[in-house]
Automatic annotation (TrEMBL):
Lineage of the species this protein comes from: Bacteria, Pseudomonadati, Pseudomonadota, Betaproteobacteria, Burkholderiales
Protein's name in the database: DHA2 family efflux MFS transporter permease subunit
One Pfam family in the UniProt entry: MFS_1
Family of the protein in this entry: Belongs to the major facilitator superfamily. EmrB family.
Intracellular or extracellular location(s): Cell membrane
Transmembrane segments: 18-39, 59-78, 85-106, 112-134, 146-167, 173-195, 207-226, 238-260, 281-301, 307-329, 341-357, 369-392, 485-503
The species this protein was found in: Paraburkholderia sejongensis
Domain Major facilitator superfamily (MFS) profile: 21-508
Cross-referenced InterPro entries: EmrB-like, MFS, MFS_dom, MFS_trans_sf
Keywords: Cell membrane, Membrane, Transmembrane, Transmembrane helix, Transport
Amino acid sequence: MAQAQAQVPHPPLEGAQLVIGTIAVSLAVFMNVLDTSIANVSIPSISGDLGVSSDQGTWVITSFAVANAISVPLTGWLTDRVGQVRLFMASIVLFVLSSWMCGLSPNLPFLLASRVLQGAVAGPMIPLSQTLLLASYPRAKAPMALSMWAMTTLIAPVAGPILGGWISDNISWPWIFYVNIPVGAAAAVATWAIFRNRDSVLRKAPIDGVGLGLLIVWVGSLQVMLDKGKDLDWFSSTTIVVLGLVAVIALAFFIVWELTAEHPVVDLSLFSRRNFTGGTIALSIGYGLYFGNLVLLPLWLQTDIGYTATEAGLVMAPVGVFAILLSPVTGKILPRTDPRYIATLSFLIFALCFWMRSRYTTGVDTYSLMLPTLIQGIGMAGFFIPLVSITLSGLPGHRIPAASGLSNFVRIMCGGIGTSIFQTAWDHRTIMHHAQLTEQANAYNPAFGQSIHQMGAAGYSQPQAYGLFNSMVTQQAAQLGVNDLFFISAGIFVALIALIWITRPERAGGDAGAAAAAAH
């Protein structure tokens, strides 16, 4: 009887209820995604105020990321036991409570404990937001629901560093957490008012204790390794080697256990579906490239071009213009076209933007910095929506929460991996280019000799001239290093198009929308 009841979908929302429900879910997602990046630029302020080192302060980011990464893939299992609406409501309320606790933290241990709670309760929020939105719209308008979701997911990571830097500079760091309270409260009230009678049927599956334990071990080890690898010089550190081995061994056991368990905590059998696998991998690698560059570009602007944190954030801001304007357009045309065409165009636009950035010089002007960012917004409008549609295509309704949770988990992990790889690769490429450039600094190179002579004529002593020359080489090496990574990113985006075309999605908005609408 319960199974039969589970297959009866709630009718789509209409009118004001649909508008309020969409806004409520989008607010919750924006608050969640914003918190993944808003604290990054505030670490110096937090560390100084709490009397700890910057290295200790970075655990504010790590603790949230580890807890979040562990809880996201549990969404499907928790949904079966708690219900979609109740779980989503609990996530919002506990997120607001933990944000308040973060702001009140008198010391670092209390702040880290609050961030762990915040990250853990944030996990189910994004996958369930997709499910609730899709179930609220008519089947034919499912892509429009995804477009509403995509706008908040794409803009929040850009807004986070800008807002976090401004709050830290002009108010105080606790307010980067306090801003969540009114937003979360409004989202919770509106969500309960609209969705309280639209919950899913519960399925009391046994607890997969072994799978849950293995998940915590391998995800926790991998996330700490990624976050601390750069500071500890990666595999020259015994700590990083041990974390890597633990992550690999626990992951191997986790995969074997989950594929054979009767009630797995994460449904890995979803990867047997071509659409889910192709869509998830293309989306996740693309997001890893996007997020890695989202961290790399402002970092390069601040360390080598002389931009402040706020100025670097503002350079990234134009990405939201076309993303906001065109996402609804993508949602409208997706039901009438093959989502693979839109996703392919999006990846080509990303490749174009990164190729344009690969041609930057140390004298780059603001216009040249902002033009690719503005164009990138066009690609972002067609990035999430068709790929999520492909990923969910062909899935029965009761598997949507688990599929969304697993897909978002892989995407979030790739975002963290992308960030770590890009920062480390930039260091290595910078060192390589610095060595190659300094090879030219010898008495047999007329250009080098002339440069030193000109500096001497300008009043510099020989040690000063050598120091100035080294500074110029360092800046140029960093420039060449970041150009390499932009160029490689462009090439990978082109290569990812092949993954898109191994999928065979049904008509956009049809099966995915129907499945999501039947999720109750």
